Amino acid sequence: MNEAVSSQNQATLTQQTSGTSISYYQDWLKGQQQLIGGLQAALLMIPESSTQGLVVVADLKTDSRYHADLLQLTQQQQQYLQPEVVSLSSEGQAEVFALLYPLRQQERLIAVVIMAVKAQVQEDLTHAVAVLQWSVAGLEVVDYQHRFEHLQHENTGVAQRVDVLARVLAEADYASAAVRLVTELAVLFNCDRVSLGEYKKNRSRLKHLSHSTQFGKRMNLVRCIEQVMDEAIDQNQLLRFPALTESDEVKGGVNGKAVNGETKGGVKISGEVLLAHQRLSEQQGDACILSIPIYVAGKASAAIVLEGNPDVPFNKQQAQLCQSIASLVMPALEDKRLNDRALWRKCLESTNQQLGRILGAGYLGRKLFIIGLLGLGYFLSTATGEYRLSAQAKLYSATQRAVVAPFDGYIQAASARAGDKVTAQQVLINLDDRDLRLERLKWLSEEAKLKRQYQEALSSRDRSKINIINAQSGQVEAQLALVNSQLERAKLIAPFAGLVISGDLSQRLGSAVSKGEELLAVAPSNQYRIRLLVQENRIADLQSDQQGTLYLSALPETPFAFNLSKITPLIETKDGASYFIAEGELQTNHQQLQPGMEGIGKVLIDERKLVDIWSREAQAWLRLKTWSWWG
Prior knowledge:
Distance between the termini: 99 Å
Helix content: 40-55%
Number of helices: 16
Number of strands: 26
Radius of gyration: 58 Å
Shape: elongated
Largest sheet: 6 strands, antiparallel, barrel
Structural class: alpha+beta
């Protein structure tokens, strides 16, 4: 390769090109000299992925005075979109042109060719452009080979990562999986030993070795490996010893041996501290060391140390592959470790973690939640309120009088029906009394007859006949009194001022009624009693003379105070539940109240803690169940 391509460019291009490709670029550029007449100087540049710039990979006739002009032109050019031709100078009848040709594929820049071409006529310049257009096909082939090799390398790395992950996850427990991981890494990278350690309490502890199932905790080797792990974790990066420079990686070391690059006393000039790595390497016969810190959930949790052949140092690609494998496998390995813990240990560590989050820095939302719970607990333990017993309530009249038929008869007229307000002694119903009047006339005529017979017996002084007539007169008077009473009762009147609450005879005029049949029911106005249905499990809270408040469905905005007057031993079943019946008396009356209204009655029991009020049902149920199980 031409000496004009610096070693720095070689090291930069190592990741994306090979030595064979760079040689091909130089040979390709030399071939253009034979195809294009008048070629004075030439440069071939390709993009460099890390800096997003262009790097010279081949040049021609660096001693030409036009070489510097071409370099200056590449610095002035910002974008390479279309081929360009720039005049550089004139030499007699000929003129020197700078031919800049960018090679692109689907908006991606592959390479840039810059040539200084002497042309005497237009055809010479046209020929040079045509030759260059045909020749760049070889550069496209090389670019395709580079991308294919890069993709193949990535696929190989992915396959290796997945393979190691599958083998580690196939193990039943954490210890077996950890041993399998270090063993797989030792085989994959041809290492003498691979170590895995856990990082706790600001220090590393060796847990697993690839070629040893048991090791002493106080061995010098163990302490050296743990110090190497600490060194990598403290610097928060993977470390290699010897630390090769980029040019050394291109050459594969110095004379095939591993070198330390620019180091002084084990400390690399770039800032990496490698003192523990150097001690471990010297202890193991100048072995090559690679240490990788492992992070799980953003925190350092473990470290891996690889010890390799002294003659084959770890390169950058191997270090990155090992780091990616560890990053992929360690979360799954950490899950196995957490699942394999004993139950008491899981509880203890979880408790410590939550306490650390609550008492330590951060987690403001959790701290506010705990403070809220403490405040709520204090409030519930000290705050009190009125304990009220709620029950279904229905309004009834205080008293109720039935208006019944005094004898068998027929309805002649009805002046009131249910819902009408009546006054005392108001006629409500008139029964048909024609038959009674006829019967009264009958007994009046019989009375007159007996009076004449009495006068005749008295004139004849017939004492026996007088006695018989006196007895018959008494009987007639009794019958007449009965008829008169029935005539008086044919008009059914209101016993007191109130409200007719049942009965409607307006549709039964002329119909027959039987003696004792209830026709109407009258209740006094503004005299009511409340009937409460109290749940069976809460009847013990009620006592006579307790105060309460009634809210009716028809008047929900108006509360009615009442006193609990009576607790009856009667039980009513409703919807599968048993209810006791309690009665109350309203303290005040309202004109809009009507018998039969329903609502909710709340009886004030006493002052209790709010937590006891809200949890009373649960406490009662728990006590009953506890007694049924262990009583």
